[in-house]
UniProtKB/TrEMBL annotation:
Keywords: Membrane, Transmembrane, Transmembrane helix. The chain crosses the membrane at residues 56-73. Residues 22-82 form the Transposase InsH N-terminal domain. It comes from Pseudoalteromonas tunicata D2. This is Transposase IS4 family protein. InterPro entries: Transposase_InsH_N. It holds the Pfam family DUF772.
Length: 88
C-alpha cells in the first residue's frame, strides 16, 4: 500500500486562497485537473511505492502529474525551471 502526503490544494487554513475556487471552468488548468482526477487510472503508480510501513510519505502521483503537464503546457521542460516558476 502506498503512503502519500495529503493533497492540500483545497485547504484554506494556512493560505487565504482556496485553489479549487481559483481555477475557472473552461480554462486549460480546469480541464487538466478534471482529466487527471476523474479520467486517468493512476493505480499503476501505487506498485512503485512500498512506503506504507517505513519511509516518508510521497507526493501523490495526481499532484505530480498535474505539475508536470502544466509545466509542459507552458513550455517548461526542465524540472528545476518548473520549481522556480511554480514554487516561488
Amino acid at each position: 500500500m502506498a503512503n502519500y502526503k495529503p493533497d492540500l490544494s483545497c485547504q484554506n487554513k494556512f493560505i487565504p486562497i482556496n485553489f479549487a475556487e481559483q481555477i475557472l471552468p473552461g480554462t486549460f488548468e480546469y480541464a487538466l485537473c478534471y482529466i487527471v482526477e476523474n479520467k486517468l487510472d493512476l493505480t499503476g503508480f501505487d506498485a512503485w511505492y512500498n512506503n506504507d510501513k517505513t519511509g516518508a510519505a510521497a507526493y501523490s502521483p495526481s499532484v505530480m502529474l498535474k505539475i508536470i503537464l502544466l509545466g509542459y503546457a507552458h513550455g517548461l521542460i526542465s524540472s528545476r525551471r518548473m520549481k522556480t516558476i511554480f514554487c516561488s
